[in-house]
Amino acid sequence: MIIEANRQHSTKTYVYQYGLEVLLLLYIGIRNGEGLALKWKNVDIENEQIYIESSISRIKDSSGKRYNKEVSPKTKKSTRKVYLAPQAIECIKNTQERN
Question: What 3-state class would DSSP assign to 40?
Protein backbone atom coordinates (compact mmCIF):
# COMPACT_ATOMS: atom_id res chain seq x y z
CA MET A 1 0.00 0.00 0.00
CA ILE A 2 2.71 2.48 0.96
CA ILE A 3 5.02 1.57 -1.91
CA GLU A 4 2.05 1.63 -4.31
CA ALA A 5 0.94 5.05 -3.04
CA ASN A 6 4.39 6.51 -3.57
CA ARG A 7 4.61 5.10 -7.11
CA GLN A 8 1.19 6.20 -8.28
CA HIS A 9 0.90 9.81 -7.19
CA SER A 10 -0.35 12.63 -9.39
CA THR A 11 2.28 14.85 -10.97
CA LYS A 12 0.26 17.85 -9.74
CA THR A 13 0.46 16.75 -6.11
CA TYR A 14 3.82 16.59 -4.40
CA VAL A 15 4.09 13.42 -2.32
CA TYR A 16 7.01 12.84 0.02
CA GLN A 17 8.65 9.48 -0.51
CA TYR A 18 7.40 7.18 2.26
CA GLY A 19 5.21 10.00 3.63
CA LEU A 20 2.28 7.74 4.46
CA GLU A 21 4.51 5.28 6.26
CA VAL A 22 6.10 8.00 8.36
CA LEU A 23 2.68 9.35 9.36
CA LEU A 24 1.41 5.89 10.26
CA LEU A 25 4.54 5.23 12.30
CA LEU A 26 3.95 8.48 14.18
CA TYR A 27 0.19 8.18 14.60
CA ILE A 28 -0.18 4.51 15.49
CA GLY A 29 3.27 3.21 16.34
CA ILE A 30 3.73 0.44 13.78
CA ARG A 31 7.21 -0.81 12.95
CA ASN A 32 8.97 0.20 9.74
CA GLY A 33 8.80 -3.30 8.21
CA GLU A 34 5.12 -3.59 9.14
CA GLY A 35 4.38 -0.31 7.38
CA LEU A 36 6.15 -1.42 4.22
CA ALA A 37 4.19 -4.69 4.18
CA LEU A 38 0.74 -3.05 4.46
CA LYS A 39 -1.69 -3.63 1.62
CA TRP A 40 -5.05 -1.99 1.00
CA LYS A 41 -6.77 -5.21 2.10
CA ASN A 42 -5.25 -4.64 5.57
CA VAL A 43 -7.03 -1.30 5.97
CA ASP A 44 -10.52 -1.22 7.51
CA ILE A 45 -11.60 2.42 7.45
CA GLU A 46 -15.16 1.57 8.56
CA ASN A 47 -13.90 0.04 11.83
CA GLU A 48 -10.97 2.49 12.05
CA GLN A 49 -8.25 -0.14 12.20
CA ILE A 50 -5.53 -1.85 10.22
CA TYR A 51 -4.47 -5.47 10.37
CA ILE A 52 -0.79 -6.24 10.81
CA GLU A 53 -0.23 -9.64 9.21
CA SER A 54 3.29 -9.45 7.83
CA SER A 55 6.48 -7.45 7.74
CA ILE A 56 9.23 -6.67 5.24
CA SER A 57 12.59 -7.95 6.40
CA ARG A 58 16.09 -7.59 4.99
CA ILE A 59 17.38 -11.10 4.20
CA LYS A 60 20.87 -12.27 3.21
CA ASP A 61 21.04 -15.18 0.76
CA SER A 62 23.77 -17.84 0.61
CA SER A 63 25.92 -15.66 -1.67
CA GLY A 64 25.78 -12.77 0.80
CA LYS A 65 23.47 -10.66 -1.35
CA ARG A 66 20.74 -8.83 0.57
CA TYR A 67 17.13 -8.44 -0.53
CA ASN A 68 13.74 -7.52 0.95
CA LYS A 69 11.28 -10.31 1.70
CA GLU A 70 7.76 -10.31 3.11
CA VAL A 71 7.77 -12.48 6.23
CA SER A 72 5.38 -13.49 8.99
CA PRO A 73 5.64 -11.53 12.22
CA LYS A 74 8.17 -12.85 14.74
CA THR A 75 5.59 -13.61 17.44
CA LYS A 76 1.87 -14.43 17.59
CA LYS A 77 1.18 -11.11 19.33
CA SER A 78 2.79 -9.24 16.42
CA THR A 79 -0.16 -10.28 14.23
CA ARG A 80 -2.72 -7.79 15.47
CA LYS A 81 -5.35 -5.12 14.89
CA VAL A 82 -4.20 -1.56 15.38
CA TYR A 83 -6.75 1.20 15.86
CA LEU A 84 -6.29 4.29 13.74
CA ALA A 85 -6.08 7.85 15.01
CA PRO A 86 -8.35 10.32 13.17
CA GLN A 87 -5.28 11.90 11.53
CA ALA A 88 -4.17 8.51 10.20
CA ILE A 89 -7.65 7.84 8.78
CA GLU A 90 -7.59 11.20 7.00
CA CYS A 91 -4.13 10.48 5.58
CA ILE A 92 -5.21 7.05 4.31
CA LYS A 93 -8.40 8.45 2.73
CA ASN A 94 -6.40 11.15 0.93
CA THR A 95 -4.00 8.52 -0.40
CA GLN A 96 -6.89 6.33 -1.62
CA GLU A 97 -8.42 9.30 -3.45
CA ARG A 98 -5.13 9.99 -5.28
CA ASN A 99 -4.72 6.38 -6.46
Answer: helix
- Phi, psi at 81, each rounded to 5°: -100, 135
What is the SS3 assignment for 38?
coil
Which segments of the chain have a pLDDT < 50? 3, 6-14
Domain containing residue 28: 2-98
Beta bridge partners of 21: none
**CB-based contacts of 49: which residues, under 8 Å, 6+ apart?**
81, 82, 83, 84
pLDDT for 79 equals: 93
Tell me how far apart the alpha carbons of residues 57 and 31 are, in angstroms, rounded to a whole number: 11
> What total number of domains does the chain contain?
1
Instruction: Assess contact for 59 and 69: CB atoms under 8 A.
Output: yes
- Rounded to whole angstroms, what are the CA distances from 2 to 17, 29, 78? 9, 15, 19
